[in-house]
Write a structure and sequence with these properties.
Largest sheet: 7 strands, parallel
CATH topology of one domain: Rossmann fold
CATH class of one domain: Alpha Beta
Strand order of the largest sheet: 3-2-1-4-5-6-11
Strand content: 15-25%
Oligomer: single chain
Order of helices and strands: EHEEHEHHEHEEHEEEHEEHEHH
Number of helices: 10
Number of strands: 13
Mean pLDDT: 96
Shape: globular
């Protein structure tokens, strides 16, 4: 199987590339990444072919998609706060970029296309757990752009017979998820600060809860979807139903490190949702054999990775 991974030098993408390399599933893997958020170092030692380019460049897409059996589209402009600061850029990469990928797939024989959407599309819909039948109510430009990306994906499946699968990622964490920048996610920010004996920045009171999903669990699901060519005409939550508060994450980091940490409380940020938890019924029906990595095990591995830097 020849697989193209857009955004393959990023956090999730490079972990997926490693998993594919360790299996016989994909003897040929091509990574397309403009390195705007990904790092070439994430692919060091990888057998994947790397193409430095943008999903907005149709000629580059034609080059990498020609002959592909599958595309895993992970390239995106991440971060809710970043999208609020730069909404047009979020739309261009996340919505228009996905459209470009889908059109490239149409031009080259309709390979299997797996697309990363986001739990942020549920937004202001307060129902828990979040099931895919809930009405999306995005409250940030990022969420709106990811809703557009999954809508395009499913529409291209219906309209053109493209074999598609749109996953709604929840709060993925693990090795290679970087801290040290303005839009870093909570767990890498917390771990990095704790290891540096710095106060942990918490926006709001820390009671916000998330369905944290270790990156290996996400990659296992994607690899299984590739192997069995799983498709769906509806979006699929890719999370396993956990509900962990930020305060609990801090407590667990303290327990893992055996130290007390300081907390720097900041005002809640626009666009953040208070609680997120997946209903994983559809995921379990499509991927009945996948067992997630336990949160505390994943947190230990993440801390070990940060210590190794």
């Amino acid at each position: 199987m020849n697989v193209v991974v857009t955004g393959g030098a990023g956090f999730i993408g490079s972990n997926l590339v490693d998993l594919l390399a360790d299996s016989s599933l994909a003897p040929s893997v091509t990574v397309l990444d403009d390195l705007s958020s990904g790092l070439s170092a994430n692919l060091r030692g990888s057998r994947a072919r790397f193409v430095h380019g943008s999903i907005l460049d149709s000629e580059t897409l034609d080059e990498v998609v020609a002959g592909a059996d599958a595309i895993v589209h992970l390239a995106a402009r991440p971060s809710v706060p970043r999208s609020i600061a730069e909404p047009k850029a979020a739309h261009l990469v996340n919505a228009t970029g996905t459209l470009e990928v889908l059109e490239a797939a149409r031009r080259h024989g309709n390979p299997h296309v797996i697309v990363a959407s986001s739990s942020s599309v549920y937004g202001a819909n307060t129902a828990l757990p979040k099931h895919e039948g809930l009405a999306p109510r995005p409250v940030s430009p990022y969420a709106a752009s990811k809703l557009a990306s999954e809508a395009y994906t499913l529409a291209w499946g219906h309209s053109y017979g493209l074999p598609v699968l749109a996953f709604r990622f929840f709060n993925v964490f693990g090795p290679r998820q970087r801290a040290g920048h303005a839009y870093a996610a909570a767990i890498p920010t917390f771990v990095d600060a704790a290891l540096r004996n710095q106060p942990l920045p918490v926006y709001g009171d820390g009671s916000q809860s998330r369905d944290f999903t270790y990156v290996e669990s996400v990659c296992r699901v994607i690899a299984d979807a590739l192997e069995r060519r799983v498709t769906s005409n509806e979006p699929v939550n890719l999370a396993f139903g956990s509900n962990i508060t930020l305060n609990s994450v801090i407590d667990r980091i303290e327990s893992h490190l055996g130290v007390r940490v300081g907390v720097d409380r900041k005002p809640a940020r626009a666009g953040d949702v208070p609680h997120s938890q997946a209903d994983n019924s559809r995921l379990k029906a499509l991927f009945p054999t996948i067992e997630p990595v336990d949160f505390d095990d994943g947190l230990t591995r993440t801390i070990d990775w940060f210590r190794s830097l």
